[in-house]
Amino acid sequence: MYQWDEQSTYIRHPPFFEGFSTGPKTLQPLTGLRVLALFGDSVTTDHISPAGQIAPDSPAGLYLKEHGIERKDWNSYGSRRGNDQVMCRGTFANIRIRNLLVPDSEGNLTIFHPTGERMTFFDAAMKYQGEGMGLCILAGKDYGSGSSRDWAAKGPYLQGVKAVIAESYERIHRSNLIGMGILPLQFVAGESAASLGLTGTETIDIELSDNTAPQQTVDVKATDPDGTRTTFKAINRIDTPIETDYYRDGGILRTVLKKLLAS
Prior knowledge:
Layout: E1 30-38, H1 45-48, H2 59-66, H3 84-90, E2 110-112, E3 117-119, H4 121-130, E4 135-138, H5 151-159, E5 161-166, H6 171-179, E6 183-187, E7 203-206, E8 217-223, E9 229-236, H7 241-249, H8 252-262
Parallel strand pairs: 1-4, 4-5, 5-6
Antiparallel strand pairs: 1-7, 2-3, 6-9, 7-8, 8-9
Helix pairs in contact: 2-3, 3-5, 5-6, 7-8
């Protein structure tokens, strides 16, 4: 019933229910995922979704410029968290984030694998979406540590991230990923992206079905550009049956709406 102002750069009608249906859903394999980022240990929620200043040359800064907002009125990511267009553009925009796909740089930069171009995370994510490619994140220990920032899951979801494969997770962030319909997988003990020889240039396929149980291992296939394939096991960190329902529905918001409509 809220009268949304389409011109507002602070509060927008959120896109999280687009494509919603109450029909039955099944768990499906994730195929053809490209690696948006290869991270080391201790990537925090502030690395993923910064709350501070918006940089002038960032996708979020350019968006505000295009909408006629003067630099002095940009405010911060934290103040604009009701605008998905700003927050999606701000995802992975922390100036101190280190993406090992671009080892000689620091900040908002990744590789668009089909062409090898360097570009911001947002620009690469939009190009992947334009080509119908899903995305995944490879990470080390304690992925999502720090504050329980909901946009650290919402932002990657809007960028097209379908799965994260990490050595370990911060507890609340793991739950938040499932709440947005992003699959959290964990390398088995003693394994990592580095030990498996993964460089982030691979295409990732994840075996998933309605028979996949909480905390069960699943098969992951990583195919190099030259066709070489690495197959490994990863632990499904959807830890409970109710979390399986959230993930199957596409996130907890859709589960709640489905129950409301059924009542």
